[in-house]
Amino acid sequence: MTLFCVDTSAWHHAGRPEVAKRWLAVLSANQVGICDQVRLEILYSARSAADYDALADELDSLARIPIDTDTFARAYQVQRELAHAGGLHHRSVKIADLIIAAAAELSGTVLWHYDEDYDRVAGVTGQRTEWIVPRGSL
After folding, report:
1. What is the pLDDT of residue 43?
2. Which member of 61, 95, 109, 113 has the greatest number of CB atoms within 10 A?
3. How many domains does the chain contain in total?
């Protein structure tokens, strides 16, 4: 069974008709995992204390993908490789995305997203990523 590390970009598009069917299938099969960086980003979007608590409860039901010192070491390594690729490529990927990508890579999960940053990261790491729907379709 494939476990998906869900990025915030995928989470926020989950209710869209183009995404909902696949999202529900993956969620129903318990194939959705989340790291704490994404959890913080999702909870940041809560519009009230009650909304925050409801979101936190929903997120608690998902598999946890760890972030630890190895995750940061890998994020630094990928950022360095991007810097050495020339053209300031290390500045083209958000720091949070480097951390999320490293967590997904080290946990062996597929990074599920709607964010071109992960294409640049995967170009360095070779890790498995998947757009929730084809790029540019939303």
Report:
1. 97
2. 113
3. 1
Residue 138 covered by a domain = no
Nearest Cα to 98, choosing from 71, 77, 75, 122? 75
Give the whole-angstrom CA distance, residue 21 versus residue 33.
18
Query: What CATH number is attached to the domain comprising 121?
Result: 3.40.50.1010
Specify whether the backbone of 91 is left (phi greater than 0), alpha (psi in -120 to 50) or beta.
Answer: alpha
Residue 68 lies in a domain: yes
Q: Alpha-carbon dihedral of residues 85, 89, 94, 96, nearest 10 degrees?
A: 10
pLDDT digits (tens, 9 = 90+) for 27-82: 888 899 999 999 999 999 999 999 999 999 999 999 999 999 999 999 999 999 99
Residue 82 falls inside a structural domain: yes
Closest CA to 5 of 120, 97, 133: 97
Give the CA diameter of the chain. 47
Domain housing 111: 4-131
